[in-house]
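hi!! sorry for the late reply, been swamped w classes. u asked for the two structures so here they r. pasted raw, havent cleaned anything up. first the sequence of the first protein and right below it the tokens
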Amino acid sequence: MNCEVCSFYYATIKHHISYFPEVTTGVCESCHKNIHSGRCPEFLKQQTRKQVVKFLHAQGITGMVVIGGDGSFRGAAALQAEGGPKAIGIPATIDNDIIGTDYALGFDTARNTGLQAIDKIRDTSKSSNRYFLVEVMGRKAGFLAVDVGIAGGVDHILTPEFPISTEELARQINAPMRKKQSLIIVVAEAGESGRSLKMANKLSKLTPFEYRVCVLGHIQRGGAPTVLDREIGSRMGNLAVEALLEDKTNCMTAMQNGKLQLVPFSGPDAPCRLLQNDDLLKLSEVLST
């Protein structure tokens, strides 16, 4: 997301901090990564980090706003511990699986993209009386699958936190509460992109129906950000600048119980955030009967 970049820029202007305005021009309405950053395996080496620290000092950089997930935050903390600048994180991942925050930037845009796809697939599903498996991203978490599934009114939602066997799924499909001419199953990738293809093949042998598979993949990672992502991104960017000015470091902006605040970076051994209960899955079962 880029709204946090835009907010960061204007917050620095307010506090008379030198920055590069050409980087932020026209980014609020875009989801593209104008910063052009990405993973760097070399950064895992201490010698590389020493070079980075030396470069940052030479540029007069005393504070960083790091946009990303746990890996990015661990890197920022390591850099700061080795003499680098102060670091404030902004959580951003469509998986929404960062410990310490209820919301990560990009999640709402991704789930809206998934919902639009399901709405379109439903049209062809009804017209052709076909059964569909729609696979969404999410890494090892089912947040994206659950929200897309409930909003899309699908028939089954499969998440890694509360797995059911293909045999059990087939049993439920073969014994519906009411007769259905079409059916949509949302499948979380569960760390295995394309797993819905194997599932469809197995279901076709266990049920009398033909299945089509739609793996949404990286289409969920782009597009114009939603109002929610723009608004929260803007607030997080501003809070990050204020935190640096207050000499804070090794923490991230976080949404907890509807309130925006700062929380410490999670430890290097902290697990990913996962669905903690199946209340929404039970709601989906009620809505799909």
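now the second protein. again sequence first, tokens right under
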Amino acid sequence: MKQDESVAVSETLALLYFRSATHEDGEHGHAVQVAVCRRYVADHGWALDSEHQDIGVPSAGYTALVTRLRALRAQGQPVVVVIATLDRLGRTAQRMDRLFNLQMFGAVVHAAAQRREFSMHHADDAVSATIRAIAERYVAGPELAQPTAGKAYSG
């Protein structure tokens, strides 16, 4: 992990996050993700601040990413989080809260392979409301997220 504390606050810093299911390098392997993300950062002229990785489900690497993001944003630093593809944050709707949380901490999230920005600030109100509703529903816990099959509403 590289961290340069001397970067000017006005320069946008990029935090990279990689996640692969196993240690093997395949279509979504670490080496492929690193190359795609670093090229994307260079194409945009951002300064690379740090890289974070998880094998399997998002855990220690993701936690370190969020910790670094929060520290930089507390200093007023513009920050982007770059991932190879959106599914690197997690494959299920239950993990969409990760995208929402990164944005709530002040990062703009970019998927390098898709060459796409995912930002609440650039989405229309309907999309923003939908993402917030999904995130809030799953953050609330599984007992609130699961439909009550077979029970009629008696309100």
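hope this helps!! also noticed smth abt the second:
Helices lie at 30-44, 60-74, 96-104, 125-139, 142-145.
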